[in-house]
Design a protein that fits this description.
The chain has 6 helices and 11 strands. The protein has a single domain, classed as 3-Layer(aba) Sandwich (Rossmann fold). By secondary structure, the protein is α/β, with parallel strands linked by helices. Helix 5 packs antiparallel against helix 6. Helix content is 24%, strand content 22%. Bound molecules: S-adenosylmethionine (SAM) and zinc ion.
């Protein structure tokens, strides 16, 4: 287990101190126990365990093969036209500038290892993917109040059942003056990871982020990418006849015809109305 976050941990239920006892953390106050498996602490209540699967069998060979045969990704970053599965320029620039930050928490990290961007990034997810340091639910973060220097929260808000509770947890654990990098979707098809609950207009997103000082805000993924992804899904659904297997084949097939639409984003960069059809927003914030 990485030692960088041990002193910041707290019971996700009552926020009291934890102590380490053989292969588990125990809470001093409510006496709940949290197992450690393969050096990864699991801060998940019994009732949430059904959403925790192991995805560690995703071998890199499978990924490499998929990259060769799958159609190009359907969306690109608005400013750089690079694949939006990577990281936005605003985040990489910020992390380079703030290389001295002692602890960054990546909530809903998936299996992404971002330590090449910043060595102090700790990955937390509700699912036990590869590169996960902590398994926990964002609705109940296992950290002390005001203990985290920066939080990355990218493409996760739409996947949580109660976004207001998660945002209040993020606010609780972030230090005063700490940073938050957010990405959230506006126009995207339904995509369950492990489920999918909501979308945000520009006004809706800004309203949520009101407790913070806004350092930067913009379109992360633009209208051309919205169209590319939605048209691909539209064609796959239309030609599936309601059959799941045909639908997945359709996504593959129509992906080759629709991916290029994402590059039309280049024409929207200086268009002030582009936010009416954006696919996703990004924002950089500081807790006052
Ligand atoms: C679309 S992925 C985003 C991955 C990554 N942050 C990125 O930007 O590419 C959403 C991730 O959020 C995780 N997630 C969903 N609900 C969560 C929760 N309640 N607590 C923690 N992680 C959650 C999912 O397991 C998944 O890995
Ligand atoms: Zn407790």
């Amino acid at each position: 287990m990485k030692s960088s976050f041990l002193s910041l941990l707290a019971c996700p239920s009552c926020h009291s101190k934890l102590f380490l006892k053989e292969d588990c953390f125990s809470c001093f106050h409510c006496h709940r126990g949290y197992l450690i498996k393969n050096s990864v602490p699991f801060f998940i209540e019994e009732h949430s365990k059904n959403v925790v699967h192991s995805h560690r069998s995703d071998t890199s060979l499978v990924k490499k093969m998929a990259k060769i045969f799958l159609p190009p990704h359907h969306s690109v970053y608005f400013q750089t036209l690079t694949n939006s599965h990577g990281e936005g320029r605003e985040l990489t620039t910020f992390l380079k500038k703030h290389h001295q930050l002692p602890f960054i928490l990546n909530i809903g990290s998936l299996s992404k290892d971002l330590t090449s961007l910043h060595p102090k990034i700790i990955n937390l997810d509700i699912i036990y993917y590869s590169h996960i340091d902590i398994v926990a639910d964002a609705h109940q973060l296992p950290f002390r109040d005001e203990s985290v220097d920066m939080i990355l929260f990218k493409n996760v808000l739409e996947h949580v059942r109660n976004p207001l509770q998660v945002l209040s947890e993020i606010f609780r654990v972030l230090k005063k003056g700490g940073f938050l990098y957010m990405k959230a979707p506006f126009l995207q098809p339904y995509h369950a990871v492990p489920d999918d609950y909501q979308r945000y207009t520009v006004s809706g997103f800004k309203e949520l982020m009101k407790p913070y000082e806004e350092l930067e805000f913009g379109i992360s993924v633009g209208p051309g990418s919205s169209l590319s992804w939605i048209l691909r899904e539209y064609l796959a659904i239309a030609t599936s006849l309601g059959n799941q297997k045909f639908y997945h084949l359709g996504l593959y097939f129509w992906g080759w015809f629709t991916f290029w639409l994402k590059y039309t984003d280049i024409f929207f960069r200086s268009n002030r109305l582009a936010d009416r059809l954006a696919s996703a927003w990004y924002g950089l914030y500081r807790k006052p």
